[in-house]
Amino acid sequence: MQTKYEELEQLRSKYPDFSPFVLLKLSMIRYGARLTDAALDRVQDPYYSFGAVEPFGIDFVGRTEKRAMPGPILLRDSSNVYINYGENYSDPYDVDWDEDAGVFFLKEGDRIIETVDFVPRPAFFGKKTSRGTPMEALADVRAQLLILTAFQRCRFWEKGDQCAFCAFFTSGHTMGEVDCQDIYEMIHEAIKEPGRFSEIHVSGGTDFTGEPPFELEAERYIRVLQAIGRNFKGRFSSQLMCPAYPKHLLKRIYEQTGITSYCPNIEVADEALFRKLCPGKEKWVGYREWIRRTVDAVEIFGKGNVYTQVVTGAELAEPDGFRSMDEALESNLKLCEFFAKNGVNFMSMVWRPHKAARLGFQPMPPLEYYVRVTKGLYEIRKEYGLVSVNDDYKHCGNHPDADLERMD
Fold this sequence. Notes:
By secondary structure, the protein is an alpha/beta fold. It has helices at about 5-15, 20-30, 35-40, 180-190, 215-230, 245-255, 270-275, 280-285, 285-295, 300, 325-340, 365-385, 400-405; strands spanning about 35, 75, 80, 95-100, 105-110, 110-120, 140, 145-150, 150, 175, 200-205, 240, 260-265, 305-310, 345-350. Helices cover about 30% and strands about 15% of the residues. The chain has a six-stranded mixed β-sheet. Strands 7-8-11-12-13 form a five-stranded mixed β-sheet, covered by helices on one side. A two-stranded antiparallel ribbon has the order 9-10. This is Radical SAM protein.
């Protein structure tokens, strides 16, 4: 049986122009990573400890409320790798602390793969708003990015219309709608830390109520973005991740807030699979309408400021997925090129099976599939002059294809 190290070496040889750090990142996300006891002890230090609050309400089996978890892993090139600590990975890497060397090592068995570190704990963690809300419950933190959850539930779950790969808001500890004063105070405190944050993303579970549908959700986002905007003059580097809204709602959001980019995630490139895997999105918007609205948004936000993503690998999942990786790859590249021609950044993230999702636990595609998708999407966007400034290596950390832009 091939080891992860042998697989990395084989793919480095086969794809010599592919960044070794992006390759390692893909491998780490695919296989996962667990902290050894020594590493877990070390990250209890205030420099690393993020706390036990999980703002997207995901139920992780291995997490304990008694011990803090760290933030994303940092590689030597400063890219960050977002790992869901505590998942039941079948063959994970180990992150170990070497007391003598004074560093963390990424290991496979006894073999040292790489030296790693963790994103430092933000200065605002541990503080509370004037309402007594823990500030760390309001935002997920990446290297230089804050991700806010405006609505901590998703109404697609109410009738079983949730996306088949989604495990958000399954822990039973969500807060519903966020308080705007809490948001204002948290952002106000976070930006006091010099040079720490350069981007703010706002997202949340889907709320289709209102007439037309999503109107109440759009109004909620306007309130939240306005609360954030009280900390800035004019527009601020930001992204709204939400459903594909009709143009009149998008215009309201853009004109009444300081938002700079928009990301309606289509999740699945193939139309038939979209209907099966994203039944709520199909029911309330529809595949073709989702695409049309995404392209229309370029008129409002400008070329390169509209994004969408696919959950790469879910298109190969049983029982309805593609039977071959070549077919799945073609599906993703075809839609990426269509979007790129129309000024939209089409990106990927790695699908991680989860027990709480409808697809459940099942085998993931081989690592090489993720290399091919990552390389293909990057090359298409480059051909059309598109560059990701919102979802690059130092911000979200979920989009390996954007990390490749550092080589340009």
